């Protein structure tokens, strides 16, 4: 049902094949699926919708599901553009699943960080034009998903009592964003704004995010997805090789650097998270999240 609301003419597998599109999992997805993938048969735009209630937090399985979905879409040579969206009202993605960091099993923690790095490779380095449809909160690694796209459309905060926010808030929690995420921030909003944002752990309301260039457009909530899909059509019409080469001008060195230091980055993350002080911070943060509710 959910998928049917995503776009006017979504294809099932058989229909897609007749149109030369052979994506396997879209539209047949059950609501339990962590991500839903669909293709608009009229425009050829793919939409990957994160669907992990309550907040689309990035668990190991969620990271893997996102990567699988991106790879499935990329394997269709006819598809040039992709929208990344959320099925949850009010939340794009709450960032890393903090429970993955709490009293972790070392093997799973290693796999978890590897899968998070993999999203960076797959989304930031995608051959597709990627548009983020940010109709809700996007803190920390949620912001990273948006930063990894080529264009960001966010829900406007105008008239909202509790506007959505976006940014890298790690320092506020007493933890530190990985350097490759920090550089994505610097590359997008510039050194000064990134220094302020990272140091103070700022979460920006939409109008502020637009002012500093963290997002590219604000639209009313009900228009976020359709506007993102329309933007994806525009990007999909740019000659693909030239578009990808231009994207890589800005991103290749960053991607190559993480590829070369991937294991070190994972080792560092693991020793950081398993440290006693970090575990106290993570424990306290988890408690504060559930207290907020009660
Ligand atoms: C000193 C050294 C330290 C070293 C540590 C090293 C670590 C390195 C890693 C660095 C990288 C970090 C990147 C990250 O992404 S960290 C995660 C940051 N994310 C957040 O801070 C977001 C937290 N969530 C929220 O602010 C809100 O949930 C929301 C997104 C604004 C939505 O608010 P809403 O009111 O709709 O929802 P609730 O807050 O009521 O949440 C509903 C339930 O979901 C649970 N929840 C929320 N966020 C997370 C999460 N990120 N991980 C796991 N679970 C989450 C929340 O507890 C509620 O659960 P409950 O229903 O069971 O109570």
TrEMBL record:
Pathway(s) the chain acts in: Lipid metabolism; fatty acid beta-oxidation
CDD domains reported in the protein's UniProt record: crotonase-like (cd06558)
Keywords, sorted A to Z: Acetylation, Fatty acid metabolism, Isomerase, Lipid metabolism, Mitochondrion, Transit peptide
UniProt cross-references to Pfam families, sorted A to Z: ECH_1
Principal subcellular localisation of the protein: mitochondrion
Biological process annotations from GO: fatty acid beta-oxidation
Coiled-coil region(s): none
Localization terms from the record: Mitochondrion matrix
Family matches, as InterPro entries: ClpP/crotonase-like_dom_sf, Enoyl-CoA_hyd/isom_CS, Enoyl-CoA_hydra/iso
GO molecular function (one): delta(3)-delta(2)-enoyl-CoA isomerase activity
PANTHER family, A to Z: ENOYL-COA DELTA ISOMERASE 1, MITOCHONDRIAL (PTHR11941:SF45), ENOYL-COA HYDRATASE-RELATED (PTHR11941)
SUBUNIT field: Homotrimer.
Official protein name in the record: Enoyl-CoA delta isomerase 1, mitochondrial
Source organism (scientific name): Seminavis robusta
